């Protein structure tokens, strides 16, 4: 009964506070004490008893009362007192390492005096074993709940970013995050380590016993989720605008590499970029891979493990690790462990391709693969045979991880929703980057690549937007790389090219006269279908897979800013004979005469949404013959035309001599054939490496806060507040 009474008193005090228009004296203790009475209120109670609208009313009507309520803890006479925000953040940091509240006390007696909390060495109280800490404390439900509530409070403090509109130029740092991750916070290192280890050590399977989660409720998951969210927010750092934190230094005996020059002032970014021990990398990679694979396990043994929901936060964390710590990136690519990250990402991409509310997930997955594809080792790793049979809604094939990647990309392009079009460039850039290293593509995959070329080289597609022909260039580059560098193992692809040779002849003879261009665009108006689905033998999907479903009507989603075009997103490098990369100078026309950047350039690139929709065909965009000629003359068709010139007569001869319609004989001939000395001199391999830029930094900020907004519903911390960073929309 007592608790109900105290809640009523608390609610009465709130009503008094929100209805008084006169300032209440700070010395009126009888009034103010009602707020700090020992009511065991839960967070949910506070949200129910203190409606947000009433707090806003106090802020508008009687700000002095709100100020008194905030400062009622002592220091109002002291003019040298810290700003309230700093005191609050330091208090939260202290509480996160408070014995018997959030950490196990190491002492027999309890800590009574405040001094003890301030003198305590929090590095001895790190929450979980892992990076830089070997001891795993006993799990404690109460401590986990207290930590979680404090982290929620911390996120709320950091959420100022949600109330600022997205601006491309704002490399603005969040002052709350900046202070919390600075040397002012003496707990920065142990807290960073605690958050990282708590996330990476988490095993949702329930200590290895299937179905265990049905018996025990998992109190760790909410903590891990908040820890992941706090981590990615504190790591929100625009590496493009500051000196890159990653430098190769020598190795020392500590978990953090001290040999590097001082990195960014944000200590969390600094610590992350200096992790360097192999066993720490292994711990982080295994942990993230285990958690990302969790939704896939669901499809093998339904309900055997608890299905985690925070894979988007994990992907952002993995991105930050690779972007800020190059040694980690190289470690990931050093063994086939990278495939344990690749397969879950491809699973998410394939699963979300029809769902408008998961556009953000599609982008982060593709960005990670773009980043990885800039490294030669990624292409090499893809040659590993793919034997895991995760039920996915894709055609059945026998082949490698490269086949899996291309088959999934084909599915996204041909059966994803319209808003994925800006990603096509990225998807094909990834395929171009890995193509020189692909030893053997399956027949299914070879047909998919030619189907894409067929769809992208129809006249209406090529003429209906200024950038569409780039997709054809990317695909031709893929074919050239494989023919020049991996001809021997790729008879399937060579056979598919021979069978579909008409596509290449049509491209070589692309019409450039105005009447034909006009006719092609007329046809476009009648068939606004994004890509022809015909001509691709779909084949049956894998057993046990469900088709990718669109979002349920009414699903909430948050808007995202446009991503930069592929030319802003990547930088071209040439692979030298010895395998080293040489950065290529950007084309001269991009820079102005005096070398200064164009005014207003970022914001313009910002708004420039790729691929105008059909409506723009009638208005602004009308392709001129000169424009078509300008790129038609550059189509890299020489290698393929030479290959067709040499091989087609031989293949036709086999068919006539043996009366063959049978593929196997032709494939056998192609397997043993050689084009040594017959092809043009191999071109140098071009890699388009991801480069940090303020556009993607801004995209990550909006995406990350959108995820955090939608995932924190109990209590609904930010619902119905005046968020400006993104719009909340219903599908």
From TrEMBL:
Residues 533-543, 612-621 have a biased composition (Polar residues). It holds the Pfam family Hid1. It comes from the Eukaryota. This is HID1 isoform 11. InterPro entries: Hid-1/Ecm30. Residues 240-259, 514-622 are annotated as: Disordered.
């Amino acid at each position: 009964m007592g608790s109900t009474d105290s809640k009523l008193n608390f609610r009465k005090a709130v009503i008094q506070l929100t209805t008084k228009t006169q300032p209440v004296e700070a010395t009126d203790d009888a009034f103010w004490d009602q707020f700090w009475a020992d009511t065991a209120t839960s967070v949910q109670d506070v949200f129910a008893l203190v409606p947000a609208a009433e707090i806003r009313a106090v802020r508008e009507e009687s700000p002095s009362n709100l100020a008194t309520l905030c400062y009622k803890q002592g220091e109002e006479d002291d003019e040298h007192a810290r700003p309230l925000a700093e005191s609050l953040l330091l208090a939260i940091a202290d509480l996160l390492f408070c014995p018997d509240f959030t950490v196990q006390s190491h002492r027999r007696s309890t800590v009574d005096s405040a001094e003890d909390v301030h003198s305590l060495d929090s590095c001895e109280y790190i929450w979980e074993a892992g990076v830089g800490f070997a001891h795993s404390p006993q799990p404690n439900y109460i401590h986990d709940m207290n930590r979680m509530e404090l982290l929620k409070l911390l996120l709320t403090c950091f959420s100022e970013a949600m109330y600022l509109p997205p601006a491309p130029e704002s490399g603005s740092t969040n002052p709350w995050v900046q202070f919390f991750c600075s040397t002012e916070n003496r707990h920065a290192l142990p807290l960073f380590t605690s958050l990282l280890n708590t996330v990476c050590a988490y095993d949702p399977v329930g200590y290895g016993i299937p179905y265990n989660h049905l018996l025990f409720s998992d109190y760790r998951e909410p903590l891990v989720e908040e820890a992941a969210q706090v981590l990615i927010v504190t790591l929100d750092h625009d590496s493009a605008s500051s000196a890159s934190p990653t430098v190769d230094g020598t190795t020392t005996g500590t978990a953090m590499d001290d040999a590097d020059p001082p990195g960014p002032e944000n200590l969390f970014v600094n610590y992350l970029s200096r992790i360097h021990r192999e066993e720490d990398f292994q711990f982080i990679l295994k942990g993230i891979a285990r958690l990302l694979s969790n939704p896939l396990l669901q499809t093998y043994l339904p309900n055997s493990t608890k299905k985690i929901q925070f894979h988007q936060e994990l992907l952002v964390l993995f991105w930050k690790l690779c972007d800020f710590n190059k040694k980690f990136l190289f470690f990931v690519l050093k063994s086939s462990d990278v495939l344990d990250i690749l397969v879950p990402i491809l699973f998410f991409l394939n699963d979300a391709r029809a769902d408008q509310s998961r556009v953000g997930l599609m982008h982060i997955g593709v960005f990670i693969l773009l980043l990885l594809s800039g490294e030669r080792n990624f292409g090499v790793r893809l040659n590993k045979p793919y034997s895991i049979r995760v039920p996915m809604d894709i055609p059945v094939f026998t082949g490698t991880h490269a086949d899996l990647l291309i088959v999934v990309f084909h599915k996204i392009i041909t059966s994803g929703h319209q808003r994925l079009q800006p990603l096509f460039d990225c998807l094909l850039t990834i395929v171009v980057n890995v193509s020189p290293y692909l030893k053997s593509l399956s027949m299914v995959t070879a047909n998919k690549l030619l189907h894409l070329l067929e769809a992208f080289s129809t006249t209406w597609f090529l003429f209906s937007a200024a950038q569409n022909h780039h997709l054809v260039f990317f695909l031709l580059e893929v074919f050239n790389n494989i023919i020049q560098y991996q001809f021997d193992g790729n008879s399937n692809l060579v056979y598919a090219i021979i069978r579909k040779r008409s596509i290449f002849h049509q491209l070589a003879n692309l019409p450039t006269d105005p009447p034909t261009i006009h006719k092609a665009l007329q046809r476009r108006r009648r068939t606004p279908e994004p890509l022809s689905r015909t001509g691709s033998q779909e084949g049956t999907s894998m057993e046990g897979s469900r088709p990718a479903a669109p979002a349920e009507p009414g699903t909430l989603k948050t808007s995202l800013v446009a991503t930069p075009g592929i030319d802003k997103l990547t930088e071209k490098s040439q692979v030298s004979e010895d395998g080293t990369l040489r950065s290529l100078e950007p084309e001269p026309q991009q820079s102005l005469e005096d070398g200064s950047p164009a005014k207003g350039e970022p914001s313009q690139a910002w708004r420039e949404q790729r691929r105008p929709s059909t409506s723009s065909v009638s208005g602004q965009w009308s392709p001129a013959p000169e424009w078509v000629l300008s790129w038609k003359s550059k189509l890299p068709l020489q290698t393929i035309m030479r290959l067709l010139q040499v091989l087609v007569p031989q293949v036709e001869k086999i068919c006539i001599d043996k009366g063959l319609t049978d593929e196997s004989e032709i494939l056998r001939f192609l397997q043993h054939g050689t084009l040594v000395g017959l092809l043009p001199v191999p071109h140098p391999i071009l890699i388009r490496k991801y480069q940090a830029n303020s556009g993607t930094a801004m995209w990550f900020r909006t995406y990350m806060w959108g995820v955090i907004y939608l995932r924190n519903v109990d209590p609904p911390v930010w619902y119905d507040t005046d968020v400006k960073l993104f719009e909340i929309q219903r599908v």
